[in-house]
Structure formats: C-alpha cells, structure tokens
Amino acid sequence: MTREFSPTDPHAAPLHGQTPYQIERRVLAGVPCLIERPVEGVEIRALCLVYHGAWAAKEGKLGVYSALTGRGVAVVIPDAALHGERQADTPPDLNAREYVWESVRRTVAEAPALIDALEDLFGPHPEKRRPLWIVGSSMGGYVAQTLMQTERRVSRVAALITSGVWAEPEVGQPQLREFLDAHRPLTHATKAPSIPLLLASGEADPTFPLAAHHHPTAAAYRAAYAQAGAAHLLHEATFAGVAHYTSVSMRDHVLDFLKENFDKA
C-alpha cells in the first residue's frame, strides 16, 4: 500500500540521524532474519550480512550497523543455526564447544541458499551484481572467515573479536573435526580469494588474547595476501581497553571499512 505523508511532518520511523529506514522480519531459506533497509523507493546498492556471536541472537545486532541504510545498503541479521528462534534444533549430545562449532558448520552450509533468497527478494541490480559484505563478531567471525573460502559472491569481510587459530581439544564430533581441519584460517588462509578483509580485536579481550589469537591469525593472512600480491587489501586494527565486545570505535572502523570506495561507485 502506498501512502502520502506531509513533507513537514512525515511518518514516524526508525532513524539513523535524520535518515529514516525500515525494519523487517523475514524467514529466508528457513533462516529467521531481521532486515534493516532503506525506505521504499530507495535503491538497494549492497547487501551486508551480520553474524552474531555464540549464545546471542539477531536482535542483539539490531541498530549496530543501521548507518549503512543511508548509503542504500540492506543490513541482514540472521539467527545463526541453533541460536535465537532456532535453539530447539540443538542436538542433545554436544558439549559447549561442539555447540559453537555445529552452529558455525550449519550456518556456513545454509549461507548460499540464504544469499540466493536475498537476491530473489531484492531483485537484480539494474547495472551490476550488488556487493555482498560479511560482518561477523566472535563466533560470527568464524562464519565470516569460512565464507571467505566457500562463497565467491562475498566481496568484503570484517572479522571482529575472533580467531583463526581454531585449536579446539574439546571438539570430538568427527564432522566438526573435519570442518575445523578443512577451513582453519591459520593453515588455510590461502584458500580465500584476496578480497578486502578487516581483522579487528580488543586489546583487553580475555576470550581471544592478542598474542594467542589476533597476532597469529593476522600473520597467516598477511603471508597469504602478500603471496597474492594483495597486501593492501588486508586491514588490521586493535582497540585499547576493549574486551570481548564490539566497541563504538570498532563499529565505526567497520563502517568506514565497508564504505571504502563505495560512495564513488
């Protein structure tokens, strides 16, 4: 339904600054999602998939990246497998670390169908394929790094407060050991195409201390990108005083990274 609103007193809506945007809930390819998108009539120029961390849900990321809607970006926040509305799917025989990695494995496996559904929802771009960006924090960073290797439609990735080391002695399920060994960034960074990547961590993160996680992960990507002649596409950042969370400064850094060269396109 199309309605007319007064230009001096328009319809109240979610705002970023003075820019209105829409929030929708949809189930796409079986995945419950929240979508923050520009208002009706504004062209969707890019898609940004945002993956949350373990024991969280899509609602926790609502509003974090909504500034992108003012640039014509649809921000799509799925519930990761076994999380949020999908907790009832959790197998009963998983320990805590296996629960995390089974969620990652399933979320990665369903991503191509989710991306297909998003392309169907928003329709073809009139001139070119829309950029597809991935942002993942903590467990979502595992998903983001794996999708770099497996999903060639991804054009830019921000992996936050996460790790590529993937040393998981408590994970014993064979299919999960196979997943870890097939995609561990520390040893498989060269499997991913050299697309723009931001690796960002908190300097006070007790879950992923820099020396044990950020530094070796960054070194693996640094070597892979240098080998590909694409060192300029790797971005690294650490944030003083920040523990295991996405800080305001980190979020703003992500926004700048995602919008890099985008407004010129």
Automatic annotation (TrEMBL):
InterPro entries found in the cross-reference section: AB_hydrolase_1 (IPR000073), AB_hydrolase_fold (IPR029058), FrsA_esterase (IPR050261)
SUPFAM superfamilies: alpha/beta-Hydrolases (SSF53474)
Key words of the record: Hydrolase
Keyword Isomerase: no
Pfam families xrefs: Abhydrolase_6
Recorded GO MF terms: carboxylic ester hydrolase activity
Domain called AB hydrolase-1: residue spans: 52-230
Similarity annotation: Belongs to the AB hydrolase superfamily. FUS2 hydrolase family.
Protein name (Swiss-Prot/TrEMBL): Hydrolase
